[in-house]
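During the reporting period the student researcher (J.K.) took over the structure-prediction task from the postdoctoral fellow and processed the backlog of single-chain submissions. One of the processed entries is reproduced below for the supervisory committee.
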Amino acid sequence: MELYKLKICLMGEPGVGKTSLIRRFVYGAFPESYLKTIGTNVYKKEIKKNGNRYVLMVWDIMGEESFRQILKTSYFFGSDALIAVADVTREDTLDAIKDWVNAAESVINKKVPIILLVNKADLEWKVKEEQVKKIADEIGAIEYMFTSAKRGDNVNEAFERIVEAKINE
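J.K. obtained the following structure tokens:
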């Protein structure tokens, strides 16, 4: 059984639920209180796929635009996959995804799998699936999914899918 390490970076505007998605995936829990990410946090989780072990280093970044420019080089450098996160209740967070992906790709300098997650699907939707599909196509996402960190909808599936995409490159 081989051991592989993968760096997966989440990105998106403040308050879209990046940290909540990570905590749901890593710990199986949903934080009821909102804690704004300051700087970056790195979470670790091991999964088994195809007879191999994968240690996922999941990077969580502060969503502020000014911070994106300051940290993008160190944050995105060496990324194996990207998870772009928008909020189903805020259209502007979906529109901002292209800027996040451009910032990441300018540092990574190679094609990596990208998945687009539209979080908070348990709340009233303000974006339409057609909008999500359009953005997913524009950023070259392998897939898009509607998630709920609160209920757990599609959270594990999203991380599994991004690992599968990296394995099958």
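The committee noted the following: The mean pLDDT is 91.
J.K. will present the remaining backlog at the next meeting.
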